[in-house]
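dude i think i finally got it to work??
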Amino acid sequence: MSLNVPKVLCMAGIAVAVLVFLLFFLDLVIGFISPGLAPFKQASLFLDIAFVLSAVGLGTLSWFTLKEQD
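look at this
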């Protein structure tokens, strides 16, 4: 059984992208609904949006790179 390192790294990138997206998207959404319950108390709206967009970019790049591995 051989370990295909590029595929594992692509899947790890997707997993990290999903976690970062969920964390900052929930901070953004919950911050508008109930600011006291938000994970980071919506410290910076700009950073929430930047991290959400970065997570989408990382997930997209990881997905396309994973598909090229086949």
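Residues 5-68 form one domain.
im so relieved honestly
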